[in-house]
Records
---
Amino acid sequence: MAEPYYITTAIHYPNGKPHIGHAYEMIAADAIARFQRQQGRDVRFMTGTDEHGLKMAQTARARDLTARQLADEMSAYFSEMADDLNISYDRFIRTSDVDHYAASQAIWQAMAAKGDLYLDRYEGWYSVRDEAFYEEKELSEGEGGVKLSPHGTPVEWTAEETWFFKLSNYQQPLLELYESQPDFIRPERARNEIVKFVEGGLVDLSVSRTSFDWGVPVPGSPGHVMYVWVDALTNYLTGIGYFDEDSELKRYWPADLHLIGKDITRFHAVYWPAFLMSADIALPKQVFGHGFILNRGEKMSKSTGNVADPMELARLYGVDSLRYFLLREVNFGSDGSFSDEAIVTRANADLANSFGNLAQRTLAFIAKNLDGVLPEAGRSDPADAELLATVDGACREFRDSFATLALSQGVEAWMRAVFACNQYIDVQAPWALRKTDPDRMHAVLGTLVRAIRDLAICIWPVIPESAEKLLAQIDAKPADSLGSDWYDVKASSGFRLAPPTGVFPRLDLKEAAA
Ligand code: ME8
């Protein structure tokens, strides 16, 4: 049986519509999930929405809705976006799902049984926007003396009786975890930050609230709902039926990768492993904190009015252009900027003018001059084997890069092979060989079709829809193995191409977004 691979995104707050940061996270996770499937892993991929907490309750109140109504309305935008962006998730989890309540209560009970939960009075600073508690020493002062969290969000003084989790007991075990599993937190910058934070000492964490009721009820403690992050993190267990005796999905635990944004590493790399250790549950293998997407270099915020709608960008420029841009242009793990011009320039340069042009030139030439029939091997030249070796090397580099989450480096390697193919076609000039040396022309075209197929299979995790369209034209599939005797089998069977249709349109900057 194939080895399981479990990947999750953060679950997103549906207190508003999704923005491009949410889209980016889903797209990156989807490319990794597709890549792992292609490598033969038994993948489970989960994304969803995080629906409890004060932020949701307050946003709903301001709109005169119940929190559940708000969650229903907004969660639908997230799941529609996931579908529209071709995100191949196995479950879209909502923390208001019934099985999630049971799972959250089960982990709570396990932590209680360990003796890690106690009732006390909480007094301290809370940021509703971050749904996070902060220590006085972490705060700064904003305009008019307003106290701000390290993320620049306002904090308010909170005092209530709550349950506490003995986080302070886990300082040593956590430091040992970071030491013994150096890849537990990536990238390096995030790891260093977390190690420093934990070395600085951990205070016990308030894990229930009594001032509102939109959350998972604390078992045996009427009036208390769980702190939203306790239930939110538990979604990763809910999604595979961890506490359900009969669940066949349990084989996916421990998760291979929690893909999240850099702002929520503390929750995933400190609180989450501590909860799991307390409940005697195996720890995930890796938490990766990707960077932030900036709008022309600026942080997006509702007050600046520069929050980009990913669906509008996908509608204007195409889903695969957006996917390709984000994965090629943003060094995975660092922040990256986007603009309409940058998307159009990148998609045109790499997809329309390079890969698209390569495929179109080759397939249209075969359709026109050979009546669409793939030619059998002609007279080969060392340049042919050299090109195929370049393509093979690039696909390997892509694979090694994706396996270590160096996503943009993988795409860059792929692109270098596309350039090599375009150089090859220019030098070999099959259009000139048509009259002078048809036998040689056959070999050139055969080499190009092999290269195009392998390159389309390789890049499929990034641009699945376009790659599939292109592969369909030559009757190949993303799951096919690279190289192989595919071409010879196809050509000797007399396979005939339909007249090819362009897969990568040239994009223009659109008025609406300019
Ligand atoms: O944090 N660029 O939800 P969320 C890239 N519910 N990524 C971004 C981004 C940007 N501009 N803005 C946000 C939450 N993100 C919690 C998670 S998980 C158990 C609970 C990322 O809707 C952010 O870092 O605020 C996070 O990974 C995800 O989008 C959801 O953010």
Note: The first strand starts at residue 4 and ends at 12.
---
Amino acid sequence: MACFFRKNIASKLAKIFGQPEDSFISAVSTIPVSKKQQSSDFRLSVSHLRQKGFLPSAEDIQTQAESLARQLNRDSVVDDVTVGRAVINFKIKRDVLAEKILEQVSKEGHMFGLKSALLCGQQKGRTLVEFSSPNIAKKFHAGHLRSTIIGNFISNLKEALGNDVVRINYLGDWGLQFGMLGAGFQDYGSQEELKANPLQHLFEVYVRVNAEAEKDEGVRRRAGEFFRQLESGEEEALALWRHFREISVGEYQRIYQRLGICFHEYSGESLHQKQALDVLQRLRVQGLLRTTEKGTGVVDLAAAGDPSCLATVLRSDGTSLYITRDLAAAIDRKEAYDFDEMIYVTDKSQEGHFGQVFQILRAMGHQWADSCCHVPFGLVRGMKTRKGDVVFLEDVLEEAKGRVLRNMQATRTSKELEDPDMTAERVGVAALIVQDFRGPLESDYSFDWGRVLQTQGDTGVFLQYTHSRLCSLMRMHGSGQWGLLDPALLQEEQGAAVLKQLLRYDEALLQCSCDLQPKHLVNFLLALSHLVAVGLRTLPVKGSPPPLAQARLRLFDSARTVLANGMRILGVTPVEKM
Ligand code: ARG
């Protein structure tokens, strides 16, 4: 949307320099809305013009700025042109600002901002996003929760920008842990408990058999034997494994649904056992595989620029490793989906692993490895529920919901809600997501329920609260139909501040798209919510003459639309009452 104004300024420059308008779009940016209200809205960077060769770099930049500003006239859109340090500032006429933005939001709705010229380079075609990827029978720890919400955000963002997104969950569904589970289930498994509470039961069996195996050599042997049966494809063992996998996936699906997340494919390490052997064969043929004295197979990555690296891809007993299966899985996906880019979301401890995966793929001649990337994130410390350490995703959701529900009961709002549980859950999830997305993904952080759930301040609860306040304003005063808008009635700086923030939405999305960090969008939405709070305080609807009330309602409704759009991209379902 900033488009219209950017275009206006770019077209002036196009005339001056005799170059196409498009070459100037990126030189113009919005000026952040700050506490001490700025009177200008857009800024043209003169150094950008020098970098692009439109102005000679040898001359004094300030003189260039001043002489260029003299040629940039005011018109029906631009109210004022001023010179800053190496920049030229533009102030847009307040009524044009209001008219254009409100018109655009109501015309484009959920597409607002997404068609901006700034974003047109962000379409990459088909994007594969691999995320969540828990290990069956093991803990679903905070790292998996982070991967789940970050991967969902990246998928939503890519989709919003017009990419064809494929969401893949790559389960830890193979390995000695299934030998343990198989052996353990024979001893302490119960079909009834498995049916009643599958994840819990599998986890219990797994913990117990591990403890036994520590003490008992016999248990270890039986676990090894069970895994060998799986590897050699013995039907009885496989049937039990399949059963464990199916019920676990069923449970995962149910819980992901609570987060509004759906995967196109549940793949996993098990599916790439055979292909991993093909990869080894190819590596051998290509002369990339070396056998060490210990009998393991390694790929020497020194030639690829990493002198310290020998990647082990084959155990001495002939079995494949995690990395071998990842190589196979990547090649498989390229064949199945012919993706244009692939994104893996895991904690940062796996950075080295993915670096090696991509390097080996390249060494094998798969140049498309350049279109693969790993998005790493940091650790969460101290995420606990009343039951103690987090073991299951569902416990976190229950805890968040329970706490929000108690807060709502304390303020007695829950009685007025149709479905307090659902509302509490949505507010709780928003709280978790915003807390997690506020900083750079790579940073570690300490988790604190008290801080996460604050109503005021920079939390997901605050975003939900703002959205529901705006909805309630519409319920009270909106007729569902807009009369003629008189934009001249929206001259106050508090209103202009909200409008200017809406103008920045495409820039926030662009930043997210460039570095895949959700913090830009989170901070945008928090800032918008703070501006809305000021607006709601200072620009009353109730008691104002109808045309003014109408104009203000339009303004708040536009803010509500953009807030909801942004929240959805984050993976938050906005609530209408809370
Ligand atoms: N299951 C793994 C874990 O919990 C994450 C899988 C990441 N994806 C991959 N392609 N290796 O650590």
Note: The mean pLDDT is 93.
